[in-house]
Design goal:
Blueprint lengths: L1 H12 L31 H12 L2 H4 L1 H6 L5 H29 L3 H4 L1 H4 L5 H33 L18 H14 L11 H26 L20 H15 L1 H5 L2 H4 L5 H34 L6 H11 L4 H37 L6 H15 L1 H7 L1 H8 L2 H18 L27 H21 L6 H8 L1 H19 L19 H7 L18 E9 L5 E9 L1
Antiparallel strand pairs: 1-2
Keywords: Membrane, Transmembrane, Transmembrane helix
GO molecular function, one term: nucleobase transmembrane transporter activity
GO cellular component, one term: plasma membrane
């Protein structure tokens, strides 16, 4: 009876499949993990423009200059840090994404050829942890913008009595904002990444217009900018760190803050119609627009300093001040409402795309029989209630500081990924060996490529001490620990890159750089197949999987909605 119940539950939880398309799920594959066919690669440059806009047109980017100014850097030095760090972020994001652009596989599958089938869970679990926690924190921060919207409509909401216990490190006011933000976000989890174009457009335009409006209003009202805009270097001669070291630390910090998104950039680059669209979208928004948003945040804050006599970097706080100084007039409340709504919508969709959907992709790699992107995104979102972000933000500042420094572990992962793909394999991957371990070149030793693990550890070992003393704010720690930590991203990336290359020279991997002779998955267009040296497979030729898993590969041509023939790779259950 118990066995029958368990079997029934497993069957109910197993992902559905469309027999007309011969779809199948297995221990290592489902529809969201296989190489994407042309019919699903729908992202043009504007999709990536919108995607990266979510990482640029947001509250965090707006107040980025404050981080560096409070450390003693001048405005010019702070902007230099931002320009350099964002340019480097573009470079690393493109390097990691290139595999997805070429072979149309995501981060989960990409790691199998470097780490081995089983060891690929090491980077995967790190990403899942970060997705869970940052999703929860982003929901909490987005909830603050929701409270501004509600207060703009009903000013009495700001005075709502706190009904939570004294031991709870938050208030009813904040909790309502969190709940509303969370609930409104849930429907967007059901949108497939292929259909993100419209939400990208709405969110980027809404927030962009809101930021420009706030900038223009502040400059016109103030008639100029306040003293903060002209702030010079304030690093004293007796300071422990020179301006150069602070700038280096700032660049490292800025890159590290985006490392999680860069590490899994192939999860979204695989949806690209072509490589050019991804590169144009990345450079135009992540670098250029990101720098302009930082500058706009600085100018607006400086102008508002002149208006209110105080510096307000955080947009939710600034909007509440604007409403208070407007004396509750309908005009000021309406302006604040629409500004907060624009910020909130962008924050919401950034969280859905960068954390929830990314978490769904990673969870699909962990349990492909039972979890696809949609289920994984829902699990990631519901996990916010378990994580309780109000506890983290208000009572676990050290833990949040460690999360912000997690690039210490991610940079070495990126180092081995880039080394393996570009230097060792020369951008050549045998796709058919990525989805079944039996007989695969990527099974290595019991599913573990032992070469990669010591290289990854060696990448973060020199800087882990600096992370600890920095999180503890230990002023008595040796300078060397801090100095290593201030360049942790570069150290981690380079050490793992070099050591992994040397390890493969000393202990060569068999069949390195081999590819499938035929397009077994129907993933390439005719021009792509020609460039890669792969024979296009226009017939239903099946190969590469094993009957031991009960899977037959089927490559069929299906007619798209537009009437054009598109290749579709799917599976049929036996």
């Amino acid at each position: 009876m118990a066995q029958k119940t368990v079997r029934s539950i497993r069957e109910a939880a197993t992902l559905d499949f469309d027999e007309s398309r011969h779809e199948e799920v297995s221990a290592w594959s489902n529809r969201d993990l296989i190489p994407l066919p042309p019919s699903r690669r729908t992202w043009g440059w504007f999709n990536f423009f919108g995607s990266w806009s979510l990482s640029s047109l947001n509250v965090a980017t707006w107040q980025t200059p404050n981080t560096f100014l409070t450390q003693g850097l001048s405005v010019g030095q702070a902007m230099a840090v931002i320009v350099i760090s964002r340019a480097l972020c573009c470079l690393f994001a493109i390097l990691v994404a290139w595999c997805g652009l070429t072979w149309h596989i995501g981060f989960t599958v990409q790691n199998r050829y470097t780490w081995g089938f089983r060891a690929s869970y090491i980077p995967l679990l790190q990403r899942i942890l970060l997705n869970f926690i940052w999703n929860a924190i982003q929901c909490w921060n987005g909830g603050k913008l929701v409270t501004v919207c509600i207060t703009a409509i009903w000013p009495s909401f700001a005075k709502i009595p706190n009904t939570l216990s004294a031991s709870t490190p938050t208030t009813t006011f904040e909790m309502i904002g969190f709940i509303v933000f969370w609930v409104v976000s849930v429907p967007f989890l059901f949108i497939r990444p292929e259909k993100f174009k419209k939400p990208f457009f709405v969110s980027s335009v809404a927030c962009g217009v809101g930021m420009v409006a706030l900038l223009i209003w502040s400059l016109v009202t103030a008639g100029g900018v306040g003293p903060v805009f002209y702030q010079g270097e304030s690093v004293s001669s007796g300071s422990r760190w020179s301006a150069s070291w602070l700038m280096m630390a700032g660049i490292n910090q800025a890159i590290g803050g985006k490392a999680a998104g860069m590490t899994n950039s192939s999860d979204f680059s695989r949806y690209a119609k072509n490589k050019r669209d991804y590169v144009i979208g990345t450079v135009s928004v992540y670098w250029i627009t990101g720098v302009l948003v930082c500058l706009g945040g600085l100018v607006t804050t400086a102008a508002c300093q002149k208006i209110y006599g105080q510096i307000w970097w955080n947009p939710p706080d600034l909007l509440m001040v604007m409403m208070d100084h407007g004396e509750g007039s309908s005009a000021s409340r309406a302006a604040v409402f629409f500004l907060a709504l624009a910020f909130a919508f962008t924050s919401m969709f950034e969280n859905v795309c960068s954390n929830a959907v990314a978490g769904g992709i990673d969870l699909a790699g962990l349990f492909p029989r039972y979890i696809d992107i949609r289920r994984g995104a829902l699990i990631t979102f519901f996990a916010a209630w378990i994580i309780q972000p109000w506890q983290l933000i208000n009572q676990a500042a050290t833990f949040v500081a460690v999360l912000n420094s997690f690039a210490v572990f991610l940079a070495p992962i990126m180092g081995v990924m880039v080394c393996d793909y570009f230097l060792l394999r020369h951008q050549r991957i045998k796709l058919s060996h990525l989805f079944h371990p039996e007989g695969s070149d990527f099974w290595y030793w019991h599913g573990v490529n032992w070469r990669v693990i010591p290289c990854w550890i060696a990448g973060w070992a020199p800087t882990i001490g600096g992370l600890v003393v920095s999180a503890r704010k230990d002023k008595g720690a040796p300078d060397a620990l801090y100095e290593l930590y201030y360049i942790a991203f570069f150290i981690g990336f380079l050490i793992s890159f070099v050591l992994f290359y040397l390890a493969n020279l000393a202990f060569p991997v068999a069949h390195l750089g081999e590819i499938d002779e035929e397009d077994k998955y129907g993933t390439f267009t005719a021009s792509e197949a020609a460039k890669l040296g792969v024979t296009p497979n226009d017939e239903a030729i099946t190969a590469g999987f094993y009957k031991a898993e009960g899977i037959a590969q089927v490559n069929e041509v299906s007619e798209s909605e537009s009437g054009k023939n598109q290749k579709w790779w799917s599976f049929r259950r036996r």
